[in-house]
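User: Hey, quick favor. My workstation is busy. Could you predict this chain's structure for me?
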Amino acid sequence: MSLANGRRYLAIPGPSVMPDRVLQAMQQAAPNIYTGPLIDLTASLIPDLKTVAGTKHRAAIYIANGHGIWEAALSNTLSRGDKVLVLATGRFGIGWGEMAAAVGIQTEVLDFGLHSTLDLDRVKAALIADTAHEIKAITTVHVDTSTSFRNDIKALREAIDATGHPALLMVDCIASLGCDEFQMDAWGVDVMISASQKGLMTPPGIGFVFYNPKAEEARAKVDVVSKYWDWTPRGNPQEYYEYFGGTAPTHHLFALREALNMLVHEEGLANVYRRHATLAKAIWAALDAWGVGSSIEMNVKDPALRSHAVTSVKIEAPLGTALRDYLSENLGVTLGIGLGMAAGGTPEWHGYFRIGHMGHVNAHMVLGTLACIDAGLKALDIPHGDGALDAATRVIAQA
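Assistant: No problem, here it is.
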C-alpha cells in the first residue's frame, strides 16, 4: 500500500510550489500583444520587481532560465578577454564562472568549498594584488542552492570598497529573491540576477537582471552584445516588444502579476521574510533533534549563514537516497537531491538531500514535510534523535 495518493508535495529548492491563484491566473486565452491590458500589466510588474530587489535602477526581463540570466549579465558587462573574479561557495557559484569561461571571459576562481562562506580577507588580497585592475567584475551568489550558504553581500561590498578596486559587483539571487531580504542599492550591488521559479512562485521560464548606472557605463564599453541579450532596450523600452526582444511570455506575465500581488501588496515583504525565517528555524530545530546521536547534520553549522529558502543535509550514505525514495514513493513528498555535494554516481552522492522551503510555503506544509521525514526515518530504521516534531512545533508556536 502507498500513502502517496492525493496531492503530492515538492519540498525541493525550485521549481517551488505555485499558489493556486498563480496557476489560475494563467488559465485564460492568449491576449493581444500589440495593445490593450497586457501592455499595462507588464509595465506594472517593473516597480514591484524593483521593490523586491531593493533597487531604484533598471530592470530587464528575459525569456530564459537561470543559466540564460547568467549569460545575459555577462554579455552586457564584459568583453571577450576581460577578467572576472569568481567567488564560489557551492556548485552555482562555480557554474556562473563556467558560463563566463565558455563565452571567452578569463576567470580567476576563489573556491571556498562546500562547507564555508566567503573569506573576505582572501577576496581583499586578490583585489589588492590586481594592481592593474584587470578584474572587471566580481561574481558571487547570495544563496548557493547546493550548499545552502547565505553569503553576506553587504560585508562583501565593504571589503571591496576597502581595497578601492573598481570592479563591478554582480550577485546571483536566483535562490534567495523573495525569501531572504536583499537590498541591491543599499548594499552596493551593481548587477543582480534572479529567476521566476523559486521565491517568486511563478513557473520556470523568465529571468531578471537588475543593473545600476555603473553597470550601464560598463555596457557602453562592451565590444559586442547580441541584439537578443542587450539589456538597453529591455530596461528602457520604446516599443512593447522590446521588453522581451520579441513576443512576450504572456502567461508567465499573468502568473508573475498574481505572485507579486501576493508578495508585495498583500502579505508585504517584511512579513514574507519573517515567514521564511520562522519556517526555516522550525526545520533546523527538527534537524538538530534528529542529529543527536546520528549521522544527520546540516551542511551549514552557523545559523547566521543559513539560507531561509533551502537547507542542505548530510546523512550516512546511501541513506539520503533511500529516504528520498521512500518519501516520494510512499508518502507523496519529494525532497531535493544533494546537488554538487559529491560526484554523481559515487557512493558518497547518496548521502545528501535538500529540503526546499521557499516561496509558497506555510506552517502546515513545512510541518507535514517534517512529519513525513520523521515517518521515513522510522520506517527505514535510520538512526535518529527523538523530539524533532516537538522542537519544530515549539518554534512555530512561539512565532
